[in-house]
Fold this sequence. Notes:
Layout: H1 7-21, H2 39-54, E1 58-61, E2 67-71, E3 78-84, H3 97-112, E4 121-126, H4 139-145, H5 150-154, H6 164-170, H7 182-187, E5 188-196, H8 201-205, E6 211-217, E7 220-228, E8 232-233, H9 246-258, E9 267-276, E10 282-283, E11 286-294, H10 298-319, E12 322-331, E13 334-335, H11 338-348, E14 352-355, H12 360-364, E15 370-375, H13 391-409
Parallel strand pairs: 3-4, 3-5, 5-15, 6-14
Antiparallel strand pairs: 1-2, 2-4, 6-13, 6-15, 7-11, 7-12, 8-10, 9-11
Helix pairs in contact: 1-3, 1-13, 3-13, 9-10
Bound molecules: zinc ion.
The site of zinc ion (ZN) has 5 residues, from loops.
Amino acid sequence: MTFSASPADGSRFASTWADLAGIGRDRLRGGYSRHLFDDGDLQLREWFRAEAGRRGLDVETDRNGNLWAWWGTPGPDTVAAGSHLDSVPGGGAFDGPLGVVSALLAVDELRARGVRPRRPFAVVSFAEEEGGRFGVPCLGSKLMTGAVDPDHVRRLRDTDEIGLADAARRAGIDPTRMGPDRERLAQLATFVELHVEQGRLLQAADPAAQVAVGSEIVAHGRWRLTVTGEGNHAGTTRPEDRHDPMIPAAAAVLAARRVLADHPGAVATIGRLHPVPGGTNVIASSVQCWLDARWGSAEQTATLVDEIVAAVRAEAELEGCTLVMTREAMSDRVDFDPGLSVNLSERLGAPIIPTGAGHDAGVLSAHLPAAMLFVRNPSGVSHAPGEHAETADCIAGVQRLTDVLADLLA
Ligand SMILES: [Zn+2]
């Protein structure tokens, strides 16, 4: 195993990283808001093409908007590495782009090490991994693998009521061709996704380790709870006359925290509330709450959600409101290929850790051996502007990814 944090590595990482820094900044929230087919996303696609072109890689946008940069001719037995370039609203710089940048730099490093791939290699950037614009996480990989209905996807709209199909056309992608890509899937032999760690499990597993290998992704899903009451005047409506949907919505927020005490390892969050009409002197007529819940298996997560919804329903009845729940997304627990993960862990001398975050590697792992490498993030902050990884750790990530790819491509 080699490790070199040479100035050349550092400056190459820094310059590639610097080119991304100005794209898709969110001046209101801080950090980045990079969403499918928005201006930032289109600039990121140009950046990807330029970086691939600089390395002599052929770039292709597949029918689902995922970007592929090929070293060698596309074909069977392909090894792919990458991640995504989009972000959550007001997200950090590392979640996603670190994996794409690392895969591109791994091409440089493989060449520097004199590796001549015996199989095709592709750097991939999957579309709308965060579901930040149209609500479906891992959209590009789910479309490719057939895990989501393309008709449903074509009907998705963003919060400005812009349809995904129209947004796709704007980006030069024909929405009628979106859907399962069996040919591409059949070409892929292995996928490795490097990602910034999004918690503090790596630190807990081994405070000295810069990189870890992923073992599993816990089950996770999103639900939309719509509470409807009666819009009214905040000053003149007596307490006994109110049907305020914000009360059951508040119960949802509190229940999402309360149930965790009984279920170690579970997490549930209401991170988004939308009162309608949303006036300070107005009792809302309805409130939409988005619940994110994650725990062990799909059944366990469903138990968690049932408990939260029961609490909201009880409060809605007391308040004279109605509740409608819609499941927006659900992914069952994913165990990464155990042979591959153990191999990588031994090869790299890296600890193995689970994650509570969804990833394209999790979607692909239902179809081919997939693995993840996590670069440490000691604060654990992610999906927020404060997300950070030290450059030395990022470079170690590139080196470890290169080690893995050198073995896979040999
Ligand atoms: Zn990510």
